[in-house]
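[audit] Reproducing an earlier prediction to check determinism. Same input, same settings, fresh worker. If the tokens differ from the archived copy the diff job will pick it up downstream; this log only records the rerun itself.
[audit] input (89 residues):
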Amino acid sequence: MNPESVMSLGRHAMEVMLMVSAPMLLVALVIGLVVSIFQAATQINETTLSFIPKLVGIFVAMVVAGPWMLAIMLDYMREMLTGIPGMVG
């Protein structure tokens, strides 16, 4: 394996990681922003107020985007496992 192929594998792994984690992170970001705007408007300073909405939102995001995330991870693993003979020799 040459350095270019190692860098390509690392870049592809990072892309897959970002694609798989993006739906949950974006949902948590949006819910956190909405809850913080609500807290600022009502002057409620409770740090645990955003926990349950984020938990529910991330669960919904996993249910909705789960099949797509699983397909992305399976394609990546299939590509890595079938590429092992080419990497060795």
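[audit] rerun output stored. Observation attached for the diff report: The chain has one domain: 3-88.
[audit] end
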